[in-house]
Amino acid sequence: MKVIIPVLLLFVVFLFNYCFAIKQTQQNFDISIDDNNNNNNNNNDNNKINDFNDEYFEKLGYDTNGTKCDICKFGIDQIQKMIVSKKGIDDVSKYAIDLCTYLHIEKAEVCNGLIPLFTNMTYNVLSYPTVTGEYVCGFVGFCPYVPRNSTNIINFPKPKPPHVAPIAPSSSSPTMKILHISDIHVDPVYEVGMNADCGEPLCCRAPNGPGVGSNAAGEWGHYLCDINMRMVESMFEFIDEEFGDEINIVFWTGDNPPHDIWEQTYDSQINASQLVTNLVKKYFGSTSKIFPAIGNHESLPVNSFPLPPGSSWIFKALSYDWSDWINVDEQVENLQYGGYYTLPVQNGLRVISMNMNWCNNGNLYLAENSTDPANMLQWIVDTLQASEDIDEKVYLVGHIPPGIADCIDGWSEQLLQIVNRYEDTILASFYGHTHRDEFSLYYTQSDENDPSSPMRASNVIYTTPSVTTYQNQNPSFRIYTVDATTGYVMESSTYHTDLDQANLNGKPTWLLEYNATKAYNIPDLTPISMDLAIQNMNSSSSMLEDYHVHFYSASPYPESKPCTSISCKLDYICKMKSAAYLKYYECIHHEVNSYLSNENNNSIKSYKKLNILLELDNYLNNEVLKSC
């Protein structure tokens, strides 16, 4: 799960909230259209509205009036002035702590704990002569991001062979099962009865005091807190009892520590991963092949992964914990160097485990070099080429999905090129991080020699929902049924337990939530069929509402916020169609134009488009639950 750079921009966030009234007066659009009056608009007015639509579209998802962006740049400028004036790290830290405490951005104990953890990184990165406020604020998402180097840095050793469309395996084919767990975030000091709404990044702990009514931490958990050990063990016990030796492979895609990001130490981070490692070993170590990936919460502080060899402390600790599974010398070296590795599953099938923190825009160390940190992208190409040469199929496994805002767009565009180049080698990609249940697709030209040819789906990204309940999520895991010979994914089955019912009944009941083929009304899970699933949801409000419920693992949240607006529909459909974040904006533009295609009056069409974009911006900022 993503935690936005908390120290560097603590006071920026506050100032943004403080200036909210100014923001409202800068641009307060509440446009209602009277179709009968719009014929009076002249062409000049239409052009202005169309220009504004384009400008608004470009800023969508960042800041519609520039306030947040401008304040961010101002804040970075102030810190850099302190650095230039020879203020030391301690001075910058004290300044940030005082501001954080005085302005009540966080409670004093959080300010005092969190800021010192980030001071070295912030000071060092902002000391780079080429790092400007505009660049950093775009990098972390407060302003539109303009990458320094958008050129291709990957080298494909061989041209792409002719594409061979995948054929779904027969339902009678021998199968094996893959367990996918992610974002466990187990909190060992969760305490029943404590306050779940304490005003800190993580609650349900003894120092928070007792909670009242629905704010009291339940026996099995609370929707505002991280999961407790009792619930985690219940899940593992159910999987063991229900599937046992049927689980052949485990994808474990990171984020083990709880969200107590202001209290963490090197020892606590290592201990958190060891705790989960021991659980995985206990239940699956003797019967399954385990393939872990590194999450953004594994390091200290959160999101902070210096370029090699700066992160070797956590990579070496994890390589020791995972030595039962990753014990090939070359791959141990890769893991200790950059947090990535590759291992065979069986003859003809391989896993590539990527360290997606090399695309994490919360990792400020990438502000100076985000093209191919730790040389992982080229390593992925070389590994895929070796697999293609021997007709070996590959699963890609990682933590942060490449199509979301948390993954640097220039980097994700490179990965998109890689996946499309090796689409016949890569069977599918598996991620976590968002805590939500979702999928998305890669697309490529149906005729790659003809840029005007229609797009076709080339590969599938599966994002599994979190084990943790943080926040507003039922604890979940996923089982993939795959062809035992080829590795092709045949079914995706998601399981969860209803947290409210567990607390009410005194024990969890783990249930199948849905099978993907049935839920999406598709014959199989090939990319073409998954694209059909998107089309089905685009034309069926009930199917899209079901997706909305699954997105939050059937927690109470979607009941209070049903997916009935055009904004909700646009957001979901375009997330599904975006394997790189800028593709999301291209999709929004296309879908809005398609939605208004029957409107012949250009003036009315422009106003309606503006209204839709404004409504979508409000939806993204106020109704979509953030990662943290």
From TrEMBL:
Report the locations given in the UniProt record: Secreted
Q: Which amino acids does the record list as binding Zn(2+) 1?
A: D183, H185, D255, H435
Per the UniProt entry, the signal peptide is 1-21
Tell me the ranges covered by the Saposin B-type domain, including all copies.
65-147
What is one GO cellular-component annotation here? Answer: membrane
Which InterPro entries does the UniProt entry name for this protein? ASM_C (IPR045473), ASMase/PPN1_MPP (IPR041805), Calcineurin-like_PHP (IPR004843), Metallo-depent_PP-like (IPR029052), Saposin-like (IPR011001), SaposinB_dom (IPR008139), Sphingomy_PDE (IPR011160)
Q: Can you tell me which residues bind Zn(2+) 2? A: D255, N296, H399, H433
Quote the record's cofactor note. Binds 2 Zn(2+) ions per subunit.
An annotated Gene Ontology molecular function: sphingomyelin phosphodiesterase activity
Name under which the protein is recorded: Sphingomyelin phosphodiesterase
Report the source organism: Dictyostelium firmibasis
